[in-house]
Fold Phosphohydrolase.
Amino acid sequence: MCQSEVYVAADLYLGYNNIIRRNNRPFMNVEEMNKLLLRNWNDTVCSDDIVYFLGDISYGESAKNIDYWLKRLSGNIVFIKGDYDFSDEMEFLLDYVNVDIGGRHFCLVHNPADAPEDFDGWIIHAHNYSHDLQKHPFVDRERKTINISMEATEYRPVSFTEIEGVVSWAESIYSRPDYLATYEVPEIMQD
C-alpha cells in the first residue's frame, strides 16, 4: 500500500521516435522507450498520488493523443499544457499552476518564460531544450529553476519530497560563506 505523494513529470514524448536521437535517449526504438517510461511511471506513482504533468506527453504522426496515454498512467494527473498537447476529450488545459509546499512557492509550467512576471519562487519546468543538462541542469540555484525533463529525472516522475530536499540543499549550500570562498588550486596542479 502506498502513502499518498505529490509528483511532477514532463516531456514523455510517448510514441515519438525522433526524440531518441534528438535527446540522445538510451533506447533502441520507440516501443522500448514507451514501455520503460510507462513502467517507470506506474512503478513510481500509486493510484491515489497526485501528478502535475507539465506537458508534451506525446508527439509525431505515430503518437496517440493525450487521452490514449492518460488511461495508461497511474495517479490523479493535473495536466499543464505543453507545446504538443491536443485532446478531443479535455476542454481545458492549464498554462501553469502555483503551489506552496514546505513553506516555498513553486510555479509549475511547461515553458519557464510563461511563468508570471512577478513570481519570485522556484520555477519547475521542462522546456527550452531542457534535455541539454549543461544549460538546463536539474537544479539551477541562480535562476531558481528545476528542470524535470525525462532526461534530467532518470526517466521517471519526481516527488515533491525529493524536490524539497534538493531545494533545501541548494539554498543552504549557496548561503554558506565557506562555499563562496576563493578556490585555491591544489599544489599538485600548480606548475
